[in-house]
Write a structure and sequence with these properties.
26% of the residues lie in helices and 28% in strands. With 80 residues, it is α+β, with helices and mostly antiparallel strands. The chain has a two-stranded antiparallel sheet. Strands 3-4 form a two-stranded antiparallel sheet. Strand 5 (66-68) and strand 6 form a beta hairpin. It is globular.
Length: 80
């Protein structure tokens, strides 16, 4: 998960950008589910990849939901 915090992947749906890292407001999470047209349990875990033409380093990963930092050595929390 720490690597996910460095990567901070985003997804673009219907000209909207959604991030999975940082405390995402409930209305933005709902907007994401509406844009995808599916409930959380049908979306997560979400696997992603990027073409090496557009990025370097780690090019694939998995997102289990919307992450927010745990702080002070605690692991991040995942919200759906």
């Amino acid at each position: 998960m720490a690597v996910l915090g460095l990567q901070q992947p985003k997804i673009f749906v219907n000209q909207q950008c959604f991030s999975f890292w940082g405390r995402l407001a409930a209305d933005r999470r709902e907007a994401f589910y509406a844009a995808i047209g599916k409930p959380p349990e049908d979306i997560f875990p979400l696997r992603f990849s990027v073409h090496s033409k557009f990025a370097t380093g780690i090019l694939t990963g998995r997102v289990d939901g919307f992450y927010r930092g745990g702080g002070r050595g605690r692991p991040p929390q995942v919200e759906l």
